[in-house]
Amino acid sequence: xxxxxxxxxxxxxxxxxxxxxxxxxxxxxxxxxxxxxxxxxxxxxxxxxxxxxxxxxxxxxxxxxxxxxxxxxxxxxxxxxxxxxxxxxxxxxxxxxxxxxxxxxxxxxxxxxxxxxxxxxxxxxxxxxxxxxxxxxxxxxxxxxxxxxxxxxxxxxxxxxxxxxxxxxxxxxxxxxxxxxxxxxxxxxxxxxxxxxxxxxxxxxxxxxxxxxxxxxxxxxxxxxxxxxxxxxxxxxxxxxxxxxxxxxxxxxxxxxxxxxxxxxxxxxxxxxxxxxxxxxxxxxxxxxxxxxxxxxxxxxxxxxxxxxxxxxxxxxxxxxxxxxxxxxxxxxxxxxxxxxxxxxxxxxxxxxxxxxxxxxxxxxxxxxxxxxxxxxxxxxxxxxxxxxxx
Length: 391
Ligand SMILES: *Cc1c(COP(=O)(O)O)cnc(C)c1O
Fold this sequence. Notes:
By secondary structure, the protein is of the alpha/beta class. The chain has 13 helices and twelve strands. It is globular and about 80 Å long.
């Protein structure tokens, strides 16, 4: 592959420019089924649950962005994760990071566990992973940086351990997108994305991806995919293809804004903790520099009290109080009752997610407007809570 990532976001190497009447925007094949030319003949497309040209174009694009041999596009990130869990059998053990997207924790605890899959969670960025591997361990599953604590794990080092033990390394790469990090290149076996986030990028579509580099794993996942049937529909596939056209410029701007905001938060007296892997004091800073091309656009921070946090959520104007992340608009959320509401309290506390913790997804607005918005929200919150610097 010789095209740069910026070019791959526009069109793929080897694409026939004369196909589809020269259409520059890839057509939406809004059809459930494809007619056969004759008995035993197929255009390569039979039924949209299995394959659809618009979805296939998106899958090829994301596979190339992540340096995989195949990508499967699902109707949500959770469908992608759920399908990957179907690779495992009762009695299998999976080691997971303690800090994960709340929905993934819910899936593992409530559904995969019921199906006989055993999980152990540990802070993978800080422990000796080898000590947690048992005879029946089949995979290690993590995010880096994690949601919402921004813990960074050395993927190449972890991949050496999983290879040695012949187990799968599964990485949810949603937070950085393939523009900043390519886990397959660092030794991962399966990369997952909530395509809803940075890849689609506009808070207007729900999508998920699983990308692999091994043909046997591809065949097993393709079989599970066509059998369980959670494929991304053609129109949403087109929306994500369209979103990816600007992935590079969006990521660059969001990262720049995030670096400025992290510096602002770090110096603001109302803020008691800032977690952003682009701050040199962050414990994952050096690893991020080694394994990623950018620090991303997610920032977690703490304010003095629960009341203060709620007042901030209620007084931001430019930044929107909403779940989700990775779009052009900046969003702020409250992990305890929103993204991580189903995670048991003791697990939240152990991971450092408090009632004072806020998570910011930085968009591409003017950075001075974002800083100004937080500054005025902090002031209002301080007045409402009777907070003063001396207190
Ligand atoms: C949002 C998210 C998911 C789930 O994706 P959906 O598209 O909402 O189903 C999984 N992992 C991470 C890190 C996420 O942020």
